[in-house]
Amino acid sequence: MTPTYDHITRLRFLFVGNICHQVFGKWNGWVKLDDGTKLEIKDMMSFLEQSDNMW
User: Fold this and answer.
1) What is the pLDDT of residue 1?
2) What is the structure's pLDDT at 8?
3) Domain boundaries, the chain
4) What is the DSSP string of the chain?
5) What mean pLDDT is reported for the chain?
6) The dihedral of CA 52, 7, 44, 42: what is its sign?
7) Residues 4, 22 contacting (CB under 8 angstroms)
8) Within 13 A of 10's CA, how many CA atoms are on the CB side?
9) Per-position pLDDT tens, the chain of length 55
10) Of 29, 9, 19, which Cα lies nearest the Cα of 46?
11) Contact 43/26 with Cβ under 8 angstroms?
């Protein structure tokens, strides 16, 4: 994935907290389908997210 935007959120209140990391961008590559066909992917918009919750 080629990142185009990176967003980080941090929240902390007493003993509860959250850190969320979101990256938006574009995928390039290929996918092999069930029938063995290769499907090329070019500039598909997508995002990834990691979230850590604390309580």
Assistant:
1) 87
2) 95
3) 2-54
4) -EEEEEEEEEEEETTEEEEEEEEEEEEEEEEE-TTS-EEEEEEEEEEEEEEEEE-
5) 94
6) negative
7) no
8) 0
9) 899 999 999 999 999 999 999 999 999 999 999 999 999 999 999 999 999 999 8
10) 29
11) yes
